[in-house]
Ribulose-phosphate 3-epimerase
Amino acid sequence: MSRPVRIAPSILSADFAALGAEVRAIDAAGADYIHVDVMDGHFVPNLTIGPAVVKALRPHTAKVMDVHLMIAPADPYLDAFAEAGADILSIHPEASPHLHRSLQRIKALGKRAGVVLNPATPVSALDHVMDLVDLILVMSVNPGFGGQAFIDSALPKIERLRAMIDATGRAIDLEVDGGIDMTTAPRALAAGADVLVAGTASFRGGPSAYAGNIAALRHGG
Ligand code: DX5
Ligand code: ZN
């Protein structure tokens, strides 16, 4: 497989009392993207962080800040996350009833636009917005928490999306999120994913283990 693999550690599994240092450590360990899970206790049953934290973390890394919005509605917060320094803003169709308009807004803000498909959300949700999309995020768990088990039905979905992306001829990231570890990472890559989100598997063992964790996810071993 010639596609470059990118690793996007989810800071949901970092030490929240030391987030700046954690982001610097995971950056130095070889992370490609810094994945930020934003949850509102409404769209998903958990509460995490908002634009103020993205803004505070921005000076700690030059890596791509990959912001996954699990909030409904998402529209009122797009500008704030863009101003805070996000590079990618990804939204769920269920949280964005006017998905096309929301993607247009993200692009108008000068950011890369992502669409996230929950395990039960069909690939067809993308049919009429592919021209606006820079990233497709396939959830391989139901969103809300780190540390859940990988859902196998994500794999045929990734295969279908790989074919759809290749047919566009555009460079659209195909990212997978949830339950990614040494066993599931190679399966997701073989199905066609090229960006792996990993929380538990990136941050386990503390800072001295981060470089090894990321290399193992990237190279499968
Ligand atoms: C789940 C989040 C994931 C999560 C992944 O709602 O979107 O990014 O942090 O955690 P792991 O890698 O532990 O499954
Ligand atoms: Zn995520």
